[in-house]
Design brief:
There is one protein chain. By secondary structure, this protein is an alpha+beta fold. About 45% of the residues lie in helices and about 25% in strands. The protein folds into three domains: about 60-65 and about 260-355, Beta Barrel (Elongation Factor Tu (Ef-tu), domain 3), CATH 2.40.30.170; about 65-100 and about 225-255, RNA polymerase II/Efflux pump adaptor protein, barrel-sandwich hybrid domain (OB fold (Dihydrolipoamide Acetyltransferase, E2P)), CATH 2.40.50.100; about 105-220. The chain contains six helices and twelve strands. A six-stranded antiparallel barrel has the order 1-8-11-10-9-12. A four-stranded antiparallel β-sheet has the order 5-4-2-7, with no helix packed on it. Helix 3 (about 130-160) packs antiparallel against helix 4 (about 165-195). The protein is rod-shaped, with a radius of gyration of 53 Å.
C-alpha cells in the first residue's frame, strides 16, 4: 500500500512537508504581497493628494538707474574731486576741466562785442557838428546864388521884352537861374541829412552787430559753465573714467553716478504671467542679504522670438515667449545693490503683508 505523505524537494537540511503545510505557506506569501501592494498604492494616492510640486523658481538680479556725467567743454581734466564708491549730494562739484582754446574764444568774443558797441555808438552819435555847419554854409551859399541869378534873369527878361537883348541872352540867364535853384535844393538836402544823422536802417544794422557779438559771448559762457561738472542728484560714484591731466572730448563720459532708484529684473516664461501685471506685488528672496521682501511690478515687455522657450515635443506643445519683468521694492532695502540675485517666489499675500 502506498504512503499518503507528499515529500518536498530533498535537500541537506530540508524536512518532509505535508500538502497542508505547503498550502499555508503559499497563502501567507500571497497575503504579504497583497498587503504590500495595498500599502504602496495607499502611499502613492496620499502622495498625489497631499504632496504638492515645488513652484517654478525664477531668478533675476538687481538693477539701478545710472547717469553718465559728461559736459560740452572739450579740454583737459584739471582736478577730480570724488572717487569711486563715494556718496555725493545733488550740487556737489565732481570735476574741473580746463580749456585754453575756449578761454581764447571768450576773449575774442568779448573783443567783438567791444568793436560792435563802438560802431553802434558812432552811428547813434550821428554826424559831427563841424560837418553839419559846413553843409549849412553850402546851403546858404546856394541860396545867395539863386537870388543873384533870379535878379539877372528878371532884368534880362525885361530887356528882352523891350527888344534890347536877344533871346539867347535871355535863355542863358534862365538856364543859370534854373541851375542855381537845383543847386540850392541839393545843398538843402545835404544839410538836412547831416543834421538828421544816420538812417534808421544803419542804426538797426549796428544794433544787430552788437547782438551777434553778445551771442558769441553767450555761447562761450555756456561752454565754460561745464568746466565745473556737478552732481545732478544724490547717489554713488561707481566709475571714474579719465585720470587727471587727460584730455576729454565733447560729450565724453567723465564718471558714472548710480542713483538710489533700485529695482529687480526677471526673464519670465509667458506660462507664469497669469498672475503678473503692472501693479502686482510679488514675494522675492535676496540670497546675499538672506532676506524675504515684497516688490511691485512696474514693467512687462516681451523679449522677442529670439528668447523663446522651445517646445520639447514635435506635437501637442508650443513655443513659450519670454517676457522681461521689472519690479521695484515696496520699501527701501538696506544693503540692496545692483547685481545681487533676486529669486521670485510668487504673488504676495497683500492682506498678510499689510498686517505685517
Amino acid at each position: 500500500m502506498a504512503d499518503n505523505k507528499t515529500t518536498a524537494p530533498m535537500g541537506a537540511d530540508m524536512e518532509w512537508q505535508t500538502p497542508e503545510e505547503v498550502s499555508k505557506r503559499d497563502k501567507a506569501l500571497i497575503t504579504t504581497i497583497v498587503i504590500m501592494l495595498i500599502v504602496l498604492t495607499a502611499m502613492a494616492i496620499l502622495g498625489f493628494l497631499f504632496i504638492k510640486p515645488e513652484p517654478d523658481v525664477v531668478q533675476g538680479q538687481g538693477e539701478a538707474t545710472e547717469i553718465r556725467i559728461s559736459g560740452k567743454l572739450p579740454g583737459r581734466v584739471a582736478e577730480i574731486y570724488v572717487e569711486e564708491g563715494q556718496q555725493v549730494k545733488a550740487g556737489d562739484t565732481l570735476v574741473h576741466i580746463i580749456s585754453k582754446i575756449m578761454d581764447a574764444e571768450m576773449n575774442q568774443a568779448q573783443a567783438m562785442v567791444s568793436v560792435a558797441d563802438a560802431g553802434r555808438n558812432k552811428v547813434d552819435a550821428g554826424t559831427r557838428v563841424q560837418m553839419i555847419h559846413a553843409a549849412e554854409d553850402i546851403w546858404h551859399q546856394a541860396q545867395a546864388a539863386t537870388g543873384i541869378t533870379k535878379k539877372t534873369y528878371d532884368r534880362m527878361q525885361a530887356l528882352f521884352n523891350k527888344g534890347v537883348v536877344s533871346a539867347q541872352k535871355r535863355d542863358e540867364a534862365k538856364a543859370a537861374y534854373d541851375a542855381a535853384v537845383a543847386g540850392e535844393a541839393a545843398a538843402r538836402s545835404s544839410y538836412e541829412l547831416a543834421k538828421a544823422g544816420a538812417q534808421k536802417e544803419d542804426k538797426e544794422a549796428a544794433a544787430a552787430m552788437v547782438r551777434a557779438a553778445q551771442a558769441g559771448v553767450g555761447r562761450a559762457n555756456a561752454l565754460l559753465e561745464d568746466q565745473y561738472l556737478i552732481a545732478p542728484c544724490d547717489g554713488e560714484i561707481t566709475v571714474v573714467y579719465p585720470n587727471v591731466s587727460e584730455l576729454v572730448a565733447t560729450g565724453a563720459p567723465i564718471m558714472t553716478l548710480q542713483t538710489s532708484d533700485h529695482w529687480a529684473v526677471f526673464n519670465v516664461r509667458e506660462t507664469l504671467l497669469k498672475d503678473l501685471r503692472n501693479g502686482s506685488q510679488i514675494k522675492v528672496h535676496i540670497p546675499a542679504l538672506d532676506k524675504d521682501t515684497v516688490m511691485q511690478v512696474f514693467y512687462i515687455k516681451d523679449l522677442g522670438t529670439y528668447a523663446n522657450w522651445q517646445a520639447t515635443k514635435a506635437t501637442g506643445s508650443y513655443d513659450a515667449r519670454t517676457f522681461k519683468v521689472k519690479a521695484r521694492p515696496a520699501n527701501p532695502i538696506q544693503g540692496f545693490r545692483p547685481g545681487m540675485s533676486v529669486v521670485y517666489k510668487g504673488i504676495a499675500d497683500q492682506k498678510k503683508d499689510n498686517k505685517n
